[in-house]
Amino acid sequence: MASSVVGGIHKAQEVIRAAAGQDKKSADLSQDTADVNAKLKLTTDHGVKISDTDHWLKLANEKTSGPSLLEDQIAREKVHRFDHERIPERVVHARGTGAFGTFTLKEAIPELTHAGVLTDTARKTPVFVRFSTVQGSRGSADTVRDVRGFAVKFYTDEGNWDIVGNNIPVFFIQDAIKFPDFVHAVKPEPHNEVPQGQTAHNNFWDFSFLHEESTHMFMWAMSDRAIPRSFRMMQGFGVNTFSLVNKEGKRHLVKFHWIPHLGVHSLVWDEALKIGGQDPDFHRKDLMEAIDNKAYPKWDFAIQVIPEEKQNDFEFDPLDATKIWPEELVPLRVIGELELNRNVDEFFPQTEQVAFCTSHIVPGVDFSNDPLLQGRNFSYFDTQISRLGINWEELPINRPVCPVMNHNRDGAMRHRITKGTVNYWPNRFDSVPPATVEEGGFKSYPEEVTGIKARTQGPKFREHHNQAQLFYNSLSDYEKQHVAKAFSFELDHCDDPFVYQRMVLRIAEIDLTLAQKVSVSVGAPTPEKAGRQNHGKKARGLSQLDFTPKKPTIESRRIAIIIGDGFDPVAFNGVYAGVKAAGALPFVIGTKRQPIFADGVDPQTGKGVTPEHQYDGMRSTMFDATFIPGGSHIKTLAKNGQIRHWISESFGHLKAIGATGEAVELVNRVLRDVDGLKFAAQGTGVVESYGVVTAAGPQKPESFKEGWKMVQNATDFLGKF
Ligand code: HDE
C-alpha cells in the first residue's frame, strides 16, 4: 500500500538523521541536497557528461567561428533553463531572508491545548523563519521604513504549523476584503511605479486617511519599530487571534508573541536612509553573520490568553486585528524559546520557495472569527498556487516531517509517487479509516454560531482612536520625537495638499502637539484644537525601552576600530581582545587595506595588522560603535575628512565612540565642531547621555586595563539602546 512507501521514506530519514545527528527537517532536506564542491563532472539535466560548457556548437572554418547551430541541445538546455529562472515574486513581503532553527517548549500548557508542540517539553521542533519587508520588490533595500514580516514554520510531528506574523502587533485593516485596496494603495503608484520600498506617497496616506481603522497601525509604522536595527532585535506578533483547544474540548482565544533576548532596537532614520544605499542587504547579512559567528538569535515565545466566555468583557473586541490586548488586562506568559542556528544552503529553493499559510495549524490549535484571519486563511494557499504551482507543499522546504497520505493527486510538477490501484476513499481494499481525535485527527472546534448573513462588522470594531493614543502616550520623549520626524518625512513626500492637510487633522485626533509639529514641517495649516481629547492613558510593552535586556550586552554588535600606521598597539590589542571576549565583532578599518604597523614597529621586519576594510569601503553607519586607539597615527587621521566625518556621523547616530591617548583630542576636536561638546580628556570617562568614552591615561601596560574598562562602559551604554 501507498502508506508503506511513505513509511519507508520516513524510516530512511530516521536512519540518515540518527547518523548525522540532525533534526528531522535537516535530515529530510539532505535527501534533496547536492554539493557543488563534490567535484562531480558537469552534466546535462538528463545526466550526460558535458565536455564543453563555454562554446555553442558552430559551423566554423579557419577564418571565422561561423553561425551557431540550433541543434546544440546542450546550449539550448542551458539557455532555456536560464530563461525560466524567475517565478512571480510574492505580491507583498517580496523582499526577505530566512534561517533554520529550533523551537523549545519550556512550559507545557496542557490546560490550554493538546497540541504536541505546546505540551511536550522534551521535544525540539525544527523551524524555518522568514523575515521580510512588505512594500518593496524582491531587490529592494532592507532598511526602508516598513513593517517587517516574521513568519515561522514549525515542522511538528503532527504536521506543519505556520505563525505568519509581523513585528508590529496590529494591522491596517480589519476585514480581509480590504486587503487588495490596501496593498494597491501602499505599493508603488500605478501610473509610474514609484516609490519603491516606501509608504511616503500620496496614495498610501490618502488610503490611511480614508480608513480610520488604519490609525493605530500607522502610528506604529511611524515609530522606530519600522526601522529595526536587526531582524534579531525585533519582536514578532501573530497579530490575528487564534484559539487553543485542550483535551476536554475547552477553548481559549490566544495571541502569539516573540520577544528578542537582545532587546528591541532600531536604527535612526538618517542611518536607515544611508544604509539603504551603502548596503541594501544590511539585515540579510546581519542575520547570516550572527549565525555564522554562532551568536544565535533567540526569542521568548509568549502567549496571551482569554477564555472564550470572557471575550466580550473588554472595551475592544479581541477579534479585531487593529487592537492589542494590553498586558495590564491580559498578561503575557512566556512558555517557549526560538533559536535560529543554521543559515540556508541555497536561497531560492529554501527562502524563496518557502510558503506560509495561516490556515496551516495542528490539532490543539484552531482559528477564531477574526475577519482578517479568515480571509488570510483563503489567500495564502491561493497565492502559493500562482507563485509555486498546486504541488507547492511537496517542495522540500515546505513538506512536513511526518507522513503525508491522502488521495490528492496529479497537477503540474507532481513529485510524490504513490503505489496502489486506487486513489479514492473508501475503497474495496483495506482502506484505512480517517484518524479519530484520540489518534491525532484534527477536529474543528464545534463553535455554536447563530446570526444573520450580512456584510457588516462587530460594534466594537468601530472605535479607532483609543489604542492609537495609548500607543503614542506610552512612548518615551525621544521615540515621540522620532514619530514627528517620520510623519514629517512621509507627508513631505506627498505633493497633493489635500492628502497631507487632512492627514494632519487625523493626527490631531491622536495628539495635538504632534499634529502641530508635523503641520509646520509639512506645510499644512497648524491645527489649534485637538480633533479628539487625548485620554492620557499608557500601557506597558509599547515603548521599545520596555524591552531593554536586564543585563546590557554588546554580543554580536559590530565594532569598528580605526587605525593608520603608528597606532598604539597596547590599546588596540586590549580593545580588540575585549570586544571579542564580550561576544561582539571587531572590524579593523584602516587607512589602507595593506598591512598597517603600530608605533615602534619596523615595517621591514615587524608584523603589521591587515585591516578588514579600508575606510572608503565602509561607513560609520555599518557599525554599532567605533574605537580609535591613540598613537602617532592620529596626526594622519586628524587630517582626513572622511575619518572626521565618521566620528561626527557616529555621534549623530547616538553610537558609542571610544578613544584613548591622542585619539581623545581628535574626538574632542571633531565633536566640539559638531556640537560644542568637550569630553573627558583625562582618565576614563563615559559621557552617559552621549555615549562617548575616552581614556587618556597612561598609554603603556596599564592602558589595557583602561581599554577594557572602556569596553565595559561602552557595553553598558550600548546595551541600553
Ligand atoms: Fe499577509 N500575505 N496578508 N499579512 N503576510 C502574504 O502570502 C494577506 C497580513 C504576512 O515570508 C502573501 O505567501 C491577506 C497580516 C507575512 O513568505 C498573501 C491579508 C500579517 C507574509 C498575503 C494579509 C501578514 C505575508 C503574499 C489580510 C501579519 C510573508 C505572499 C487579510 C500578521 C510570508 C504569500 C513569507 C504574505 C495575504 C494581512 C503577514 C498574498 C489577504 C495581518 C509575514 O497571501
What is the average per-residue confidence, as pLDDT, rounded to a whole number? 92
Highest-level CATH class of the largest domain = Mainly Beta
Low-confidence stretches: 1-8, 697-704
Bound molecules: CIS-heme D hydroxychlorin gamma-spirolactone 17R, 18S
What number of structural domains do the residues give? 3
The dominant shape is globular
Second CATH tier, the architecture of the largest domain? Beta Barrel
What is the fold-level CATH name, i.e. the topology of the largest domain? Catalase HpII,  Chain A, domain 1
Pfam family, one: Catalase
Subcellular location: Peroxisome matrix
Function: Occurs in almost all aerobically respiring organisms and serves to protect cells from the toxic effects of hydrogen peroxide.
Binding site for heme: 380
Keyword list:
Hemocyanin, N-terminal domain, 17 strands, alpha/beta, seven-stranded mixed sheet, Rossmann fold, disordered N terminus, Catalase HpII,  Chain A, domain 1, globular, 3 domains, 721 residues
How would you portray this structure in words?
This protein is 30% helix and 15% strand. By secondary structure, the protein is of the alpha/beta class. It has 19 helices and 17 strands. The strands form two sheets. Strands 1, 2, 3, 4, 5, 6, 7, 8, 9 and 10 form a ten-stranded antiparallel β-sheet that branches. The chain has a seven-stranded mixed β-sheet with strand order 13-12-11-14-15-17-16, sandwiched between helices. Bound molecules: CIS-heme D hydroxychlorin gamma-spirolactone 17R, 18S (HDE). The site of CIS-heme D hydroxychlorin gamma-spirolactone 17R, 18S has 26 residues, from strand 2, strand 3, strand 4 and helix 10. CIS-heme D hydroxychlorin gamma-spirolactone 17R, 18S binds next to strand 2, strand 3, strand 4 and helix 10.
